[in-house]
Amino acid sequence: MIGDSIDFLGYGAAMLALIERLFPIPRSLTGEGNRQTLRILRESLPSVDLQILDVASKTRAFDWEIPLEWNVRDAYILTPDGERICDYHKNNLHLLGYSIPMECDLCFKALEPYLYTLKSQPNAIPYVTSYYQERFGFCLSFNEFSRLKARFGDSQETFHVCIQSTLTEGVMSYGEIYIKGRSKKEIVFSTYICHPQMVNNELSGIALAFALAKILSQRENRYSFRILFLPETIGSIYYLSRHLESLRKNCLAGFVLTCIGDNRTFSVLHSRNGNNLADRAAHHVLVRYYPNHKEYSYLERGSDERQYCAPGVDLPFCTLMRSKFGTYPEYHTSLDDLKLISAESLGESLEYVFRIVRVLELNAIYQNTILCEPQLGKRGLYPTLSTKDSINKIKDMRNLLMYCDGKKDLLEIAEIGGFGLLEIEQWIAQFVRHGLLKKQNNKGKKCLKKS
Fold first, then answer.
1. Is the predicted pLDDT of residue 446 greater than 60, yes or no?
2. Each residue of 400-423: b (16+ CB within 10 Å) or e?
3. Nearest of 369, 366, 398, 405 to residue 383 by alpha carbon
4. Which of 112, 160, 218, 370 could link 374 by a cystine bridge, Cβ 3.0 to 4.6 Å?
5. Whole domain around residue 298: which residue ranges?
6. DSSP 390-402
């Protein structure tokens, strides 16, 4: 809305504080860590109705099934000399995701197949999961692994493996916020809550969705907003299996938020067709405000855009990021930590997304109501003294007016004219106020008149 004034740095500080609080909590597809995360979000948004919903294990969702609920009480390895390593409570990434319970003693050679490292980043703990096949394992830095192998590789001394986990018929939890606007048409934001102790990959999306909920709940909105906190893949598949028809009817544009907290370039991963309204709005903002941005095709997909843009689903979604998943060195490792973000970078990311929201709110189809050029001077919209520079000064304003033909939306006109949609908001308001433009209804009826 005209007059929006937002302290993005202040919101960035609030986002950072939330991330610091959520960082130690273990998350996965299911489990108490996810519920704890959602409860903290609900507590942090007292004026917003964040619903926490549960789906029973083994519930069908298209070709998938909700997995068993996984919780971990403790997990570690004791070396032969009593050193506790791969401690789950020191870093959740140490335990292979969805590891089955295990208590055994193994020499190093027998233990080695259950150890996962990343040789190319020897100081990093990799993030590894086995969601849909039962196994156990531990993750550690390659340097730590090398130290152990050098010391115990040929020894028959045993390591004690302890994994106190449970896999039971429980629930998958997710969160949903609905903020009613003047229209039933919705802008949807989706982020995921299933990655342990990774900041940019996981918590940046959660924090940005949190900040959006705070802002949007405090203003009058043209459209309604739906914000989803889902376990990646299985969560969006389940949600679509229950709400696809409603989303088809009401979703104007949707965005997956992920990897959006670091201080590198801004980016978007487009839909399968690459030209829906979400794609177009993101492209417009990136081109106008972020000259070093990157745009990726659906061929490089990897997050929940895989589901929202799947054949037969085809919702108008794309994915908003800074460094794309899989492209930055810290991705899916313990190096994706609090050092990767700041209040400044989070505030900048919020501004990026909010600009896209504003573009969508402003976009519409207008019809010029005057045959030939209107007389702008008598309406105080044109310089009364004509000089060599006067036409250049109002070129964008005139192009906006003359391209409003009842067929092209403002985004298309802005692309043709090479100007920013947010920069012409006052002109649109003045043209409408003076009766020079009329917003078209869904049928696009013409409204030309003589002057």
1. no
2. bbebbebeebbbebbbebebbbbe
3. 398
4. 370
5. 8-67+171-362
6. HHHHTHHHHHHHH
Sign of the C-alpha dihedral, residues 297, 298, 300, 301? Answer: positive
Tell me how far the alpha carbon of residue 223 is from its chain's centroid: 19
* pLDDT tens figures, 336-365: 999 999 999 999 999 999 999 999 999 999
Supply the Cα-derived Rg of the chain in whole angstroms.
Answer: 26
Round to whole Å and give the CA distance between 353 and 335. 25
Tokens 């028959």 sit on residue = 156
Strands 267-269, 186-192: pairing is: unpaired
Are the C-beta atoms of 262 and 200 separated by less than 8 Å?
A: yes
User: Do 90 and 216 reside in the same domain of the chain?
Assistant: no
CATH of the domain at 133: 3.50.30.90
Say which amino acid occupies 155. S
Answer yes or no: do 340 and 398 share one domain: no
Tokens of 93: 């990434």
Determine the 3-state secondary structure of 311 from DSSP. Answer: coil
Closest CA to 349 of 188, 229, 203: 203
Kindly state whether residues 234 and 323 are assigned to the same domain.
yes
Q: What is the pLDDT of residue 392?
A: 60
- For residue 193, being part of any structural domain is answered with yes
Which of 346, 362, 378 delimits the end of a domain?
Answer: 362
Is position 445 within any domain?
no
- The total domain count for the chain is 3
Burial string for 198-226 (b: 16+ CB within 10 Å, else e) reads bbbbbbbbbbbbbbbbbbbeeeebbbbbb
Average pLDDT over residues 3-9: 84
Prediction pTM value: 0.94
Residue 450 covered by a domain: no
Query: For strand 102-107 and strand 158-168, is the pairing parallel, antiparallel, or unpaired?
Result: antiparallel
379 lies in a domain? yes
pLDDT digits (tens, 9 = 90+) for 247-282: 999 999 999 999 999 999 999 999 999 999 999 999
Residue with tokens 């070396």: 79
